Each structure stands twice: as C-alpha cells, then as structure tokens.
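Before the break, one more example. Copy the sequence into your notebook; we will annotate it together after we see the structure.
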Amino acid sequence: MAAVAGEDVDVFEKRLILDAKDGCQDSFRILVERHEEAVFAFSYQLLGCSEDAREACQDTFVRAYNALPGYKPRARFSTWLFRIALNLCRDRMRARSTQKRVARADFSASASQVDGACPRPCPDESLTLAEDLNKLSRGLSQLPPDLREALVLVGVEGLAYRECAAIMGCTLRAVEGRVYRARRMLLDWWNREA
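Here is what the structure looks like once it is written out:
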C-alpha cells in the first residue's frame, strides 16, 4: 500500500491501522516495519541483552496484533507499542530478578568469578566512544527500573514527557521527577566510575 504524494504521515498510519484491524496482513507488516527498530532499541536499553530485546520486540508485535481489534487511538500508535514493550520488559526483568535470587541461593561465587564477570578498563587505557557507550549502558542498568524507563523514553527515544507519561501510566510531573532523579543518579554513578 503506497502513500499518496503529500499525504500526512499520521493519516497514512491511521489508514494502515484501520486496514490492519480489518485483517489486512500487509498493512500490519508495514506497521511492524515502521516501528520495529524503535521498539527493539527501547527494549534493548531496558534489558541490556540483544537476545532478550529481540524476543521482547517480537512479543510486542504479537500482542499488538492480537489486541489490535480493541485498539482505540487515544495516543499515537508508537505510544501504544512502547507501553506494550515496557510491560513485557518489566516482566522479563522481574523473571531475571527471581532467577538471580535462586542462583544466589544455589551457588556462591568466588572473588575471581565476580572480578571476571564485569571487567573494568585499566586506568591508562584511552577511552573510546564504544567504551563510553558501554559505560553508559552499565550506568543505566544501575538505575531503579522506573527511573531507567523514564530516562530511556525521554533521553534515548526522544519522546515528549507527556507521551512518556502515557506509556508509563503516570503523571507528567512524575515523569519529570523520575527523569531528573535518573540524570542525577547517572551523573553521580558516572563520576564515581571515572
């Protein structure tokens, strides 16, 4: 389905959504293609693992497809998808947390295992962009989930605070506070890790 020249993107997307709701698989495929990269990137920022992020991304679109008949466009389609992805990522993080608690109860790690699990660069190594991005990813993983979610939505995905509030199911003021606290905690962590 090709867009009419000069047609507004939102109108085109609304038409795709209506067609997909009516069962047009091609329209849903186009919607997936338009949003999968952003949903994957968002999931990866929250989960920190490409395999988990891929699965969360796929699950997001499966859930979206199944829920599409009941979808009512109160917000942008991407907001709805991010909300689904956020809930799936939260479920995965809770499952991970449970698995870690079980693993800790069953096994005790030696100091050498802990040191080898997350090597820090030597002080005399020059930092590259890749190292800074790795450090940023580690810093994000240190934030509490609600703060990390808000910071990733606003700072990484570039969403407006209002849209972030809709995705997270909280007030605009709560998002502002979470982003502020996340930035402060991340900055403090970054400076300690220097």
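The first helix runs from residue 9 to 21. The radius of gyration is 20 Å. Try to locate both features in your own notes.
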